[in-house]
Structure prediction request, 306 residues.
Amino acid sequence: MPEIAMQLTNVSKRIGKKEIIKDLSFSINRGEVFGFIGPNGAGKTTTIRMMVGLMKITEGDIHILGKSIKSDFKQAIREVGAIVENPELYPFLTGAQNLKQYARMIPGVTQKDIDEAVRLVGMEKALNEKVGRYSLGMRQRIGIAQAILHKPSILILDEPTNGLDPAGIREIRQYIRKLAAEKNVAVIISSHLLSEIELMCDRIGIIKNGELVATQDVRENTSSTTQTLLQVEMEATPLDKALEIINEKTTAAQTNNKITFEIEKEHIPALISNLVEQNILIYEVSVTKSTLEDKFFDLIGENVIG
Ligand SMILES: Nc1ncnc2c1ncn2[C@@H]1O[C@H](COP(=O)(O)OP(=O)(O)OP(=O)(O)O)[C@@H](O)[C@H]1O
Prediction:
């Protein structure tokens, strides 16, 4: 049984008369990377601020390893590491000096803990350079190292990929996955760009207008049995004839000379050879996976993918 790291139960937030978060309930397991996705203004930051105790919960509760953030705040928050705004770092100090300085404020943190955090975010090499010379991605990684110095069970990152280039995003992804796998940390990452964090996450929760619209297992979607959209550009062939030729029960749609088949990946070779055997001229074959983005788009009903 996976251990629940964080449980939100009917969490609502009202500011004045405005209901910003509406009855949010979901849980995140240890060792899991959970993407919290939604368009700008959906309520991600508000939810995260409640998760880390920066904002009061109007109704409902959040439990961290079983401890209520409302009634047992100290015990609960001990298990949380977070970067809610940009990590606060001194640009004129080195990465190592920044971490030492920060560690001084946390009782019980040793040099060994610092070294371990540095290893986990892969910052050993640049540790003695001034932070002012770091790339944004490197700063993020030092920020993550800071946030995990006290060995929390949950790491919460609000929009960690904001402003990062693809290489920076790839690096963050790598270290976040490592943290979840090696340290059994539950990682919660918010973003309005699904494409940027899809590959980091085991599961995503989609929020819109303060409500959780859906949660979706990301792994499920990449399994080999997933239906694939196969677009074939061929000489003009009526759809029903094409379907007869390929001898497969599939859903298909036609636009001009292009037919898009929805089939399982393992059936693609047979489909193509059947067409070729019937002397149908094929000009182009391309695969568009039935991606999470399609699902996301269906759920949100607007393009917030970036
Ligand atoms: N203090 C406040 N008073 C009134 N309304 C607020 C307050 N804070 C946030 N809101 C509103 O609550 C909604 C959710 O905001 P929030 O910042 O949580 O969204 P978000 O999903 O994090 O968006 P973004 O990606 O833009 O940061 C928005 O409509 C925002 O205007």
In short: The two ends are 36 Å apart (CA to CA). The first helix runs from residue 44 to 51. Residues 15, 18, 20, 38, 40-46, 192 surround adenosine-5'-triphosphate (CB under 6 Å). The chain has two domains: 4-222, 227-289.
